[in-house]
DNA sequence: GCCAAGCTCTGTATCGGTCGAGATGGCTGT
DNA sequence: ACAGCCATCTCGACCGATACAGAGCTTGGC
């Protein structure tokens, strides 16, 4: 039989409450008695109050649930995700709170079960499309949900549209007119290949929708109709998927003079595809990513920088201490277009 | 007021137990009643039994604690760690169990608190030196602890010594005599630089101790005394730290003909250091890593392959369903020396 | 026609703590 | 001497569920 508070209380000859106080409120009893109690506990092999029982009574789970779409291996392969998680972990640690990973491999009954059965004080959602049933389940829990998308009243994100609009304008200034966009979650079956996206607004994935919108607007302002832009679906957010998707753009004739991607990981894949074809980034084909992960700098890649670490931190703070003022419950962080060597003027005679 | 089982029970006019059964044991009541109950729950906004209360009564937390030494950002930067975690997550998911991350930034009171207060059914320890107080705290909890080191009765690992001995023998066959070893956790202050390790057995870090032992034994068998081997401490397990440590070896005169590292991440850093000096891996300097992460293959690096994914899976299984037979509670997985282009004969006249 | 066996559902104890009000007793101030 | 106060400890209710024994009613076999 495992020792409980009562076991220790009986041993020392005090009440259960007092033993509880010895752990949770040291100021509520004399230091001598506290020492005596802790000694007895050590002797009995009692290692402190049962976390579950404590949670039940105090109403605090002591953990934040982290909702992922993708498989763990993919999610943590993206340095952006890792940075985000790190910011979150920092804040969590400062608040004596743990992180409970809830990977949503599929949007099936098992995932719903996992969401419903997670002992957490709230959820941080990392790139889960809004149509997932698991999101509803998280909502139904009646605990705070911090999103990077538009769902929910707690939100931390960036102005996605303005960010890619700036990137698009950069391309326009450079004279590009034949452009391909590589993005995840833009085809229903999530396969690699060219897809037609007549209505950007209709996309279910918040991130892809917004980022494509920004590009579309920038192109439109320069007189380039959306129907002239090649949209290519990637089957996942990884370098490999980016390269595979880029192939569908680069092997066309005439070749696009610029290939942009919705994440750096995909864009790095595009660079890989260029290299495999002996094409020079920024000369033969311009490339733009999104996130500004360390590898982007190393690859001299033009991209949009967003504060991943800070985003994680704020997500944690929003969750653990939701502001009363609704205006403060939605945080929009600044981004910055980082121009590097992967973008350059459209090759002469390309139009 | 949030709805509880009782709220739903009152609404439908059944007992609390029956509502509980509707969720947890569908076979214990008629399908019609169950439907009625679930409908009422939906109507009341009740999203299922409170996870914490359920855990308390049933004695199952529904989560595995994952203990890390390093900062989250580092831990997840290592593909080996991610693979391990992925294997663990797989098994956890199959058992309707979550993963609670418990990063041990420092070995301080806060970390102890986190370990003691984690609502988990057991801990999986990932590369935490045995001297950490947090390990004791985990032990004291009286729940299963799966280690990759020698501590605890539940263990999943590899024969570290035999693995590096094989790598060492490979070097000996190639004729190397001037050798440097880059390792983490071999200096008390964990700084970068050459350190003297007179007694390998005295090292506190299990992994470094074992891996160095294997090399030492292989060298000794070929007549190369340990005192002739240069041991260099890396300040952390990353490519950058590996490169910094390698500098201390490569800038010596005479230069070592081989630099081995205790992890692939460190070894990749060594390769970076070679490149920075226009030295050719496998020709001017041979390099060996450990783990066989994907980047190792891409870098044509000789290394020891260990089954990271499988290791994670087995850790999960050992934890969730500890075998009765003590012999089955310690699993040793096979490793394999993968020879690639980063190792070659010692340069002529190097002795 | 009768008793054992099933199927459903109920009732009570219990999981292991924390919470808030209140009891106790020594000390101070007047 | 007495009220008031602080520091210290106790008491009983409660957090929200699950476990287990058993009650009531229908079946089925002989």
Helicity of chain A, in percent?
Answer: 40-55%
Provide the succession of SSEs of chain A. Answer: HHHHEHHEHEHEEHEEHEHEHEHEHEE
CATH architecture of the largest domain in chain A: 3-Layer(aba) Sandwich
The Cα radius of gyration of chain A reads: 26 Å
Our estimate of the beta-strand percent of chain A is: 15-25%
Largest sheet of chain A: 6 strands, parallel
Given as residue ranges, the uncertain stretches of chain A (5+ residues, pLDDT < 50) are: none
Tell me the count of domains of chain A. 3
Provide mean pLDDT of chain A, rounded.
93
Instruction: Look at the helices and sheets of chain A and give the structural class.
Output: alpha/beta
Pfam families (chains A, B): LacI (PF00356), Peripla_BP_3 (PF13377)
Organism (chains A, B): Phytohabitans suffuscus
Domain HTH lacI-type (chains A, B): 3-58
GO molecular function, one term (chains A, B): transcription cis-regulatory region binding
Task: Describe the protein's topology.
Two copies of one chain form a homodimer.
Chain A: H1 5-12, H2 16-24, H3 31-44, H4 51-58, E1 63-68, H5 72-75, H6 79-94, E2 98-103, H7 109-116, E3 123-126, H8 133-140, E4 145-147, E5 154-158, H9 160-173, E6 179-184, E7 193-195, H10 206-221, E8 230-234, H11 239-250, E9 258-261, H12 264-276, E10 286-288, H13 294-298, E11 303-305, H14 308-320, E12 330-333, E13 336-338
Parallel strand pairs in A: 1-2, 1-3, 3-4, 4-5, 5-12, 6-8, 6-9, 9-10
Antiparallel strand pairs in A: 7-8, 11-13
Helix pairs in contact in A: 1-2, 1-3, 6-14, 7-8, 9-10, 11-12
Chain A binds a DNA duplex (30 and 30 nucleotides) through residues 4-6, 14-18, 20-21, 24, 28-30, 33, 49-50, 52-59.
């Amino acid at each position: 039989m495992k020792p409980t508070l009562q076991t220790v209380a009986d041993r020392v000859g005090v009440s259960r409450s007092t033993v509880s106080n010895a752990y949770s409120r040291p100021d509520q009893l004399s230091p001598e008695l506290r020492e005596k109690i802790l000694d007895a506990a050590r002797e009995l092999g009692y290692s402190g109050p049962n976390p579950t029982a404590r949670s039940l009574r105090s109403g605090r789970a002591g953990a934040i649930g982290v909702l992922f779409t993708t498989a763990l291996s993919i999610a943590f392969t993206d340095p952006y995700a890792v940075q985000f998680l790190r910011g979150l972990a920092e804040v969590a640690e400062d608040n004596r709170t743990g992180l409970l990973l809830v990977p949503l491999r599929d949007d099936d009954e098992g995932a719903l079960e996992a969401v419903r059965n997670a002992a957490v004080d709230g959820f941080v959602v990392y790139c889960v499309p809004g149509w997932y049933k698991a999101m509803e389940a998280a909502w139904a829990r009646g605990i705070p949900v911090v999103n990077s998308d538009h769902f929910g009243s707690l939100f931390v994100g960036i102005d996605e549209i303005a960010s890619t609009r700036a990137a698009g304008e950069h391309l326009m200034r450079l004279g590009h007119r034949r452009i391909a966009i590589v993005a995840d979650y833009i085809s229903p079956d999530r396969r690699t290949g060219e897809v037609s996206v007549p209505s950007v607004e209709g996309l279910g994935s918040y991130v892809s929708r917004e980022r494509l919108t920004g590009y579309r607007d920038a192109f439109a302002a320069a007189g380039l109709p959306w129907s002239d832009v090649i949209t290519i679906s990637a089957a996942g957010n990884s370098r490999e998927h980016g390269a595979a998707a880029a192939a569908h753009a680069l092997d066309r004739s005439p070749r696009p003079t610029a290939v942009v991607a919705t994440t750096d990981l995909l864009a790095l894949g595009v660079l890989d595809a260029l290299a495999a074809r002996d094409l020079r980034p920024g000369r033969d084909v311009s490339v733009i990513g999104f996130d500004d992960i360390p590898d982007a700098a190393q690859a001299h890649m033009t991209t949009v920088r967003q504060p991943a670490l800070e985003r994680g931190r704020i997500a944690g703070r929003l969750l653990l201490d939701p502001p009363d003022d609704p205006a403060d419950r939605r945080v929009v962080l600044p981004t910055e277009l980082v121009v590097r060597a992967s973008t350059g003027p459209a090759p002469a005679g390309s139009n």
